[in-house]
Amino acid sequence: MRADFVKTRYGLLKRRTKPMIKEFGLTFYVIRKSPLAVAGGIVVIIFLFMAVFGKYVAPHDPYETDIANRFKSPSLEHLCGTDKLGRDVFSRLLHGARYSLKVGIVVLVIATPLGIILGGVAGLLGGWFDELIMRITDIFLAFPYLLLAMAFCAALGPSLDNAMVAISLVWWPLYTRLIRGQALSVRENAYIEAARSMGEGRMTIILRHLLPNCLSPVLVTFTLDLGAIVLATAALSFLGFGAQPPLPEWGRMISDGRIYMFQAWWVPTFPGLAIALTVLGFNLLGDGIRDALDPKLRRVIEVEAK
Amino acid sequence: MMEDLLVVKGLETQFFTYGGIVEALDGVNFTIRRGEVFGLVGESGCGKSVTALSILGLVPPPGKVVSGEIIMDGENLLEKSEKEMQKIRGSKISIIFQDPTSSLNPLFKIGYQVAEPLIYHEHYKEKKALQEALQVLKDTGIGDPEEKIKNYPHELSGGMRQRAMIAMALACRPDLLIADEPTTNLDVTIERQIINLMHILQKEYGTSILLITHNLGVVAEMADRVGIMYAGNIVELTDVHTIFHNPKHPYTIKLQKAIPSATSVGQELEEIQGAVPRLINPPTGCRFHPRCDHATSVCSKVKPREVEIGTEHMVACHLYG
Fold this sequence. Notes:
The complex is a heterodimer.
Chain A: H1 2-33, H2 35-57, H3 89-125, H4 127-142, H5 145-156, H6 160-186, H7 190-197, H8 202-210, H9 215-238, H10 250-257, H11 266-293, H12 295-305
Chain B: E1 4-17, E2 20-33, E3 37-41, H1 48-56, E4 63-72, E5 75-76, H2 82-88, E6 93-96, H3 110-121, H4 126-139, H5 145-148, H6 158-170, E7 176-180, H7 188-205, E8 208-213, H8 216-222, E9 225-230, E10 233-239, H9 240-245, H10 250-257, E11 307-310, E12 313-315
Parallel strand pairs in B: 3-8, 3-9, 6-7, 7-8
Antiparallel strand pairs in B: 1-2, 1-4, 4-5, 9-10, 10-12, 11-12
Helix pairs in contact in B: 3-4, 3-6, 4-6, 6-7
């Protein structure tokens, strides 16, 4: 009896999720077709792995100083050498990935929903509300985002948490603009008017008809932005506004190591490479996703897949 | 005589643009009776769609209904709040738009979209609403409805989408269905099918239809009574037979002559000189006078009254006033 119930439930679940899985499968297939996107995907996976498990696989304690072994060049014992206090650079890199990912996620969790809601409402309603929101975003966008983030950081006090808040504060206007632009074009679609003529309320229309149809560019921007946020965090930390020593944040590591560039090149170079590769990886993956979501290109590949 | 379902009296809708006030509707009067098809005919830009949107309370800004009454079941729709109107839209009055390709949300399955008004207005559970939706889709004669309800809009052809739209509009059995150029974007064979379908469904569901079109052929096919619209006014209103066989208003007469017909091969079509006036600064008096062959000095000064010249035959022209 119970087994039957489970079985039918499972059947139902399978039936419901099957088209979805097929859809994901197809998207995945399209991404797989592009070697660059695959490379980006691999880099991103390595980055995520470092961020999640780096703590456990790191060969050394990232905070453990060993003055006797300072500025050791890369070797099997210290894969990326040691810094001015004899700390293992490789272990610090592994730990540092976690901070970058954390900032990326926090910023997106704060900025994306804010941007989506404000942009969606502004785009659909128009009028004074739209004007108000757009002028506020204009104010934010009038300054270079890094400068503005620095200003916020300076006001809040330098720390990684404040850097996250600062970056979130300068990031939401980008999403608001993006979504508003999308909403403006989507709201002209007859199905919005049709929904209205069916007696649906404003909120229902925004949530059910408008936003879901605006989301695919957000997914792409999301991926591309993760890279940009990693970079922004590193930049803030490099300038001394973000992570404070001895936190093994990548930007901070470059900043601390840059004066030793010529006697111990590995100290600033490896964190620099880590940042560059991560950003590149996210960008390549983002491009791949964009191609995969482009309906024209997709149709061609769908036919190929069948 | 049939009972009045919807009475529109002195409806004036204006658009407040930067360039000035556009008088899109300039005192429109008509009545739709229960169970009839009322055709509203006119050239592009004469205010047909604005009339439909005014009835639904969906005139887009900067447009506004400035005066008049729209009475349904003894209540003036123009005095209702947005919340109350939302309850009426889709359940008592619904509309089919001319573009079936973009009138369905690409992200939801057909079945769900047809069921949505039932969930919304009748508070059906999803399962029951879907069953009902399937039934309505069957009524629209869509092939293989069990399969179609699981399809997304892009998987259907234009004709099928328009059927789905009709199903969606009829799901809650509205008293009035506004069909805003329902067949304009379809080819003639599908047009034929959709017209037949609307005819059948109208009888079956007992719905009145406000048929908006610029195609006199479609009107001849479907409508019981017809209003001819010109530049924001209804210039002639009578039954469909009289419109075609005994038209009185100069505009109606000219419109008839401009229709190509299979029996007049080789003859030149008459065109109506000029274009529909810009309503931001409409002609004074009778709005048709600059294009009218019978215009006299009074036409440019005084707006013609609507005159009953026979049973159920209204004309707004100085020739008959």
